[in-house]
Amino acid sequence: KLPLRLLHTPTGVLCNRDAQISRFEGSPQYRQLLSLPSSLDKQQLETEINNVIEEYFGYATLSHRWGRGEPLLRDVEGKSIDDLGNTDGEAKLQIFCALALKHNFQWAWSDTCCIDKDSSAELQEAIGSMFSWYRWSSLTIVHLSDVSEAGSLAGSVWFTRGWTLQELLASHKILFYTFDWSLYSKSNTADHKADPALLEKLQSPTGIAIQHLTKFSPGMDDARSRLHWASRRHTTRPEDIAYSLFGIFQVHLPIFYGESAQNAVGRLLAEIISHSGDVSVLDW
């Protein structure tokens, strides 16, 4: 269930799945598993193993608006992110990983450098899995680069982007940070999705009811409302407006970068109608 690559926050090194397992096998948690008493029954053993693995591989995800100098996979492979330059994107990645480590996560994931966008097969897998990666993450850190400490949350461009919709809905636990990486509202909460006052503020820019913000289930239910949420947003590549909704509707369709947005949305609507029978989505 883990993403294909994760950043190891203590070292800043990008690790593929083999490297993730290798680090685990050298960890105290792995030695803890090897020393489990033989008296445990099968169910107890499975519970202990799952608890240790969940603790070790818990990871934070980054949700943000792409900016200047975002480091890509080729910029990060084979080096520590601490050795990168000081573009806005590189500094953002460094601060994000430091913040994830501060929250006691050894692993972090960013859509900038953890996906090989030159591989069409990997890009297809990533787009099909991205909703799940945010859902399985232990924490999503949202960086609002255009919001000051006293600024309006609702005015951020983050609420106008296509991909951030699924990141908002998929994540069980979210913390919002302002342009200088200060925790929004200076609250002591460990999860802004558990903050009633902040949830009220999220309804206006998203058009999403609180019950969906806190307990969203992917699928075809009330498809027209889900499409309406997306109608307020846009993407850099026009066809991404459809691709960014695949996880929300729990559909698996091929991606064809270069096709028109109209064609991509048409394929998505056809899939929704074929499964739900709800032709009202044509009027989204």
UniProtKB/TrEMBL annotation:
Transmembrane segments: none annotated. Residues 59-150 form the Heterokaryon incompatibility domain. Pfam families: HET. InterPro entries: HET (IPR010730). This is Heterokaryon incompatibility domain-containing protein. PANTHER family: HET DOMAIN-CONTAINING PROTEIN (PTHR10622).
